[in-house]
Amino acid sequence: MNRGEVWWAQLPGLKGRRPVLLLTRTAVIGYRTSVTVAPLTRTIREIRSHVRLGANDGVPKESAVNLDDLQTIAKKRLVRHVTTLSRSRMQQVDEAIRFALALPPFQKDAP
Mean pLDDT in each 10-residue stretch from start to end of the chain (111 residues)? Predict the structure, then answer.
């Protein structure tokens, strides 16, 4: 289990499974009972807090990682590994997280 992997997960309050991107740093995943994830959505919006994914990323359907909806869930809720995102795609994810959380260099853009 590593940062940058997409997993099917059973999210609290939702029926069925949903794909999520694992965001917790790899070095601590083995020591923790919970991890931070971002859900994937098939509602594609051209906003800076979403990162579009497609077949080249190893996901079955075009989708986007929603970095406005970070969640911490128990690791046991991760059901099945789907794919691992490339380093360049994870750099896009990192930029989207910075924007979503108003971290530098995007702090000045926050309302």
Answer: 97 87 97 98 94 96 97 97 98 96 68 49
Q: How far apart are CA 72 and CA 35, in angstroms?
A: 5
- Range list of H helices, 1-111: 26-29, 87-100
Query: Domain total for the chain?
Result: 1
Classify 53 in phi/psi space as left (phi over 0), alpha (psi -120 to 50) or beta.
beta
Is this structure's pTM higher than 0.85?
yes
Under 8 Å CB-to-CB from 51, ≥6 apart: which residues?
Answer: 64, 65, 67, 89, 92, 93, 96
Q: Which tokens go with 17?
A: 């499974």
Residue 43 lies in a domain: yes
